[in-house]
Specification:
The chain is of the alpha/beta class and 673 residues long. Among the domains are: 5-170, Spore Coat Polysaccharide Biosynthesis Protein SpsA, Chain A (Alpha-Beta Complex); 439-527, no CATH class; 540-658, Serine Threonine Protein Phosphatase 5, Tetratricopeptide repeat (Alpha Horseshoe). The chain is 59% helix and 9% strand. Strands 1, 2, 3, 4, 5, 6, 7, 8 and 9 form a 9-stranded mixed beta sheet that branches. Helix 1 links the parallel strand 1 (5-11) and strand 2 (30-35). The longest helix is centred in the last third of the chain and has 24 residues, at 597-620.
Length: 673
């Protein structure tokens, strides 16, 4: 006998995504749609697919319309879906699953789409398929659940797992904001918590809602309370642990996160994402060897019963293994791990960047790196070529970046831009000018005009208006006014106008320095004191530490340096072994920005280095050197660990190639003078 399958959906103004949902389940024997107040024609769309539409007034509960639909069910089995979901496998796959089944219900795997990339996915399981006519009922005003009702009647063993996949689009940022989901959820949760203030499920989901709104401290408070009241047997408890730990790591509470993870992994020893989070907590503290072990554990565990981000048991953890191996100077092992990550996800941007950088550290030529990446990526689409080209650009392989993109792919404006930037890096301005002639959108046009202008200032020291054709009038006038201002052909006492020109100059300086068009950047830096500071800091980020140091020190003496600039000078001094002066710079930065963990670490390291130097001097003049040995070992161990915490600027392959090998000695006056 055929198994009759019904699909149940709740709608309210779902006309955007409802058609693709209904298309995915159109072969069901019955479709029941409960409309709780649509005014966008969603009900007519449902009827066009043969659905039975029931109109139900919204009563601030998702369980109510779900249970209403059950009253009309005339099928053997029911699968319930949301209007922003699609059944990937089709109804026939459900029929195959249910043939001769002795289960009461099945869970399905839900793929939550969070963004455009393959890695922007979050997977979880939920009971969605169950037998009809058994007296099951949904519970909960929000995040309604049928599973508890099934378990109470037939036991947990009556629910089996299936390989069926539902794809959910409801968590896309634009979807969340356009439909005010966070506000709606928060209102429902507050109502439920007013009646059940210690309900851990609602406390946890209130924490999720706060987290989605960027209110991390509130989210942590709700989730911490939820954890206290959640029994170990609760199905959502491992996810609660995961989400709370992610907040702790985001808030730099890595030691607390580590302690909690080591405890919880005894309860959930097969939860890959907890191992991944442990690895993150350890690497933040500088424990790279221990982090490697944690990430290896994440790779070796895969269990789709837990809520898990895409790639946790494969490319994400393999990438992290590569990163930590590189930090330990193990570049061959690092390259191997990045390679394995790319075998699982051939265009995973972080691993493409990582493997290119690792091979460059191993003195592999840019041509060989380009050939390897081409083999790995096997680009077919514009996005594939973009990922490939970005990795080459990042290590300074500009010639290879141009050669890697076929002429037929250059119709894509983003690829054309990547080639143009590479041409400018190589000083091939005439060729770049030809490539800058076409713009397909307003944003492309603005970028194109800025690049043209930078090339003009770099080559000629001023703009040639004939070189800026087809530029919007307002932008053309602003650029020309900026040019006249720089050449002192025109000056203004209008603060508002100067501010407008400076904001444009900031963008141009950053772009010019990144392209090594330093003549253009220096010319633009003369516009204002703020522009000069931006120029100095961008030089530092590029790796031009000699020139940056000169400018930053001059700004320091003129009392025009901000806390970030002071940190940069401190870092230069620290690298040269001038620990006392470095400490003074870091302390000066902290005086205006006290809540800066990176700067506080740098200051602590400077003092530790001073202490180590003093102990070594004392030991060298003492007859009993062993007296100082233990203290030196402890200090050196602390220095090694703090140096691993990521406080220092990390240079990419491109920046390393730009950076001067040697810097001249910097004479620093006492910061108090």
């Amino acid at each position: 006998m055929d198994t009759r399958i019904g699909v149940h959906i709740i709608i309210k103004n779902e006309s955007e995504l409802l058609p693709q949902c209904l298309e995915s389940v159109k072969d069901a024997d019955e479709i029941i749609v409960v409309d709780t107040g649509s005014d966008d024609g969603s009900d007519e769309i449902a009827k066009a697919y043969g659905a039975k539409v029931i109109y139900e007034k919204w009563d601030h509960s998702f369980s109510a319309p779900r249970n209403e639909a059950l009253r009309y069910a005339a099928t053997d089995w029911i699968i319930y879906v949301d209007a922003d979901e699609c059944l990937i496998d089709g109804v026939e796959a459900i029929r195959t699953l249910l043939q001769n089944s002795n289960a009461e219900a099945y869970s399905v795997l839900i793929e939550n789409v969070l963004g455009p990339s393959l890695e922007d996915r979050l997977f979880h399981r939920a009971v969605r398929i169950f037998r009809s006519g058994r007296g099951f009922a949904f519970r909960g005003a929000i995040h309604e659940d049928i599973g508890q009702s099934i378990v109470e009647k037939y036991g947990a063993a009556s629910i089996q797992d299936s390989s069926l996949l539902l794809r959910h689009y409801g968590y896309l940022p634009q979807r969340m904001s356009s439909r005010n989901k966070m506000e709606r959820n928060e209102a429902l949760l507050k109502k439920e918590l007013a009646e059940q203030p210690l309900n851990p499920f609602y406390l946890y989901h209130m924490g999720i809602t706060c987290c989605q709104g960027g209110r991390l401290e509130e989210a942590k408070a709700y989730m911490s309370r939820a954890l206290v009241h959640t029994p170990d047997s609760a199905s959502f408890r491992p996810t609660l642990v995961r989400d709370l730990i992610k907040i702790l790591i985001e808030q730099q509470s890595s030691i607390h996160a580590e302690m909690m993870l080591r405890k919880e992994l005894r309860t959930y020893p097969d939860y890959a994402e907890l191992y991944f989070l442990l690895g993150q907590a350890l690497e933040i503290q500088g424990h790279f060897e221990a982090a490697l072990e944690a990430f290896h554990n994440a790779v070796s565990h895969h269990n789709d019963h837990y809520v898990t981000e895409a790639g946790i048991s494969s490319y994400r953890s393999l990438h992290k293994i590569g990163e930590n191996a590189a930090r330990l100077g193990r570049y061959e092992a690092s390259a191997q791990s990045f390679y394995q990550a790319l075998q699982a996800h051939r265009t995973y941007h972080p691993s493409l960047m990582g493997i290119a950088d690792a091979f460059q550290q191993l003195d592999v030529s840019n041509a060989e790196i380009a050939s390897l990446l081409l083999t790995l990526v096997q680009p077919q689409s514009s996005s594939d070529y973009a990922a490939f080209a970005d990795a080459l650009y990042r290590i300074g392989a500009f010639q290879e970046c141009i050669a890697s993109i076929p002429v037929t792919a250059l119709e894509d404006s983003s690829l054309r831009l990547r080639c143009t930037l590479s041409l400018i890096q190589l000083g091939r301005f005439a060729e770049a000018k030809q490539w800058l002639s076409a713009a397909t959108s307003a944003s492309d046009q603005e970028q194109t005009v800025q690049l043209r202008s930078i090339c003009q200032w770099q080559l000629h020291g001023r703009l040639r208006e004939t070189a800026l054709p087809d530029v919007p009038v307002q932008l053309h006038e602003t650029l020309c006014r900026l040019d006249r201002y720089l050449l002192e052909d025109e000056r203004s006492d209008n603060d508002e106008e100067i501010q407008l020109l400076s904001e444009l100059a900031f963008k141009l300086i950053r772009q010019a320095v990144s392209l090594q068009c330093l003549k253009a950047a220096e010319l633009l830096s003369a516009l204002s004191d703020e522009c000069e500071l931006v120029y100095a800091k961008e030089l530092y980020r590029l790796g031009r530490t000699n020139k940056a140091a000169e400018l930053l020190i001059a700004l320091l003496h003129e009392q025009r340096l901000d806390e970030e600039g002071m940190f940069m000078i401190g870092e230069i001094l620290y690298d040269k072994g001038h620990y006392l002066q470095a400490a003074e710079m870091f302390e000066g930065s902290l005086s205006t920005l006290p809540d800066a963990p990176r700067t506080r670490t740098a200051a602590s390291l400077s003092y530790l280095q001073l202490a180590a130097d003093n102990l070594r001097r004392a030991a060298s003049s003492s007859e009993d050197q062993q007296l100082f040995a233990d203290d030196l070992i402890k200090i050196d161990r602390s220095i090694k660990l703090l140096n691993r915490t990521g406080w220092h600027t990390e240079w990419t392959g491109y920046q390393r190639s730009v950076r001067h090998e040697a810097t001249r000695n910097l004479f620093m006056h006492d910061s108090k003078e």
